Amino acid sequence: MPAVTADTLTLPRLPALPDATTAWRPVKRVVRARRSLEGEGFQVRRPFPGVDLALADPFLLLDHMGAVEYGPGEAKGAPWHPHRGFETVTYLIDGAFEHKDSAGGGGLITDGGTQWMTAGSGVLHSELPPQDLVARGGLFHGVQLWVNLPRAAKWTPPRYQDIRPADAVLLAGDDGGALVRVIAGDVAGFRGPGATHTPITYLHATLAPGARLRLPWPEEFNAMVYVLHGRGTVGHEHRPLEEGQLAVLDRGRAITLRAETDQDVLVLGGLPLNEPVARYGPFVMNTRAEIIEAIEDFRAGRLGGTHVPHAGPADEKIDQ
């Protein structure tokens, strides 16, 4: 059960959208998240990269962490590491994470909170479970989204946003069966608290069995739906979608979902940047030369203003 809940009967409702005249977005593709290990060895499910990045643009990566019940001494995180050229958005559904960075940002993210870090020109940071969670164990469930920065904002100074659980905008679906938490962007005139360099919409919805969720969606945005828990259908064609699957939607002006069981989903989309992408681990720039510059700055201690005496492998492929 997600930490942030509310009585949907008391919340503003999304508008009812008519079946016959609404330009519903059809499903273009469904992919299953791949499992991998990150940081000190915690498991994530990663639906993208895995689809063509042009379909996900301006998003770069989505990691689904948990849900997992840690025993004492089992909780793990990601010690100090660098980033440049994009933003990391860590949303905790349940549990806690402690963030520190070389720009002086940081804090404790708790149940339902979001840590939005703009790496920009470069920052070093760590993301670790607090010591009390390590000692006693407990439930941990969250996601991290990487949002690309446009070329003009790649060198912006690092910035940190602490979005508390109470800051999220809460809405109800038109039939009252869905609770929607708007983290960033605009849904039917309701704007979430996250400040973005790239126009995006990012929300988390919980649906009761049999409930539907209908969302007006900007036609110029792309759109994706990822299932955190449960199963249901997406699109007017009722394409099945279950936990760990991502649906990439085609063009249209609205999104429709229906739950078969209790279901939690992320719905996200944004205005594609349509710019060249060069990637090397934690660096995302526009050219190979900028990636080499980031690596050299990191090794020389110029990235984030803090000297780090080691770097990652030097023989990894640099993506163009």
Automatic annotation (TrEMBL):
Pirin C-terminal domain boundaries: 202-303
Annotated protein name in UniProt: Redox-sensitive bicupin YhaK (Pirin superfamily)
Entry-linked InterPro entries: Pirin (IPR012093), Pirin_C_dom (IPR008778), Pirin_N_dom (IPR003829), RmlC-like_jellyroll (IPR014710), RmlC_Cupin_sf (IPR011051)
Family: Belongs to the pirin family.
Domain of life: Bacteria
CDD domains xrefs: cupin_pirin_C, cupin_pirin_N
Positions of the Pirin N-terminal domain: 42-147
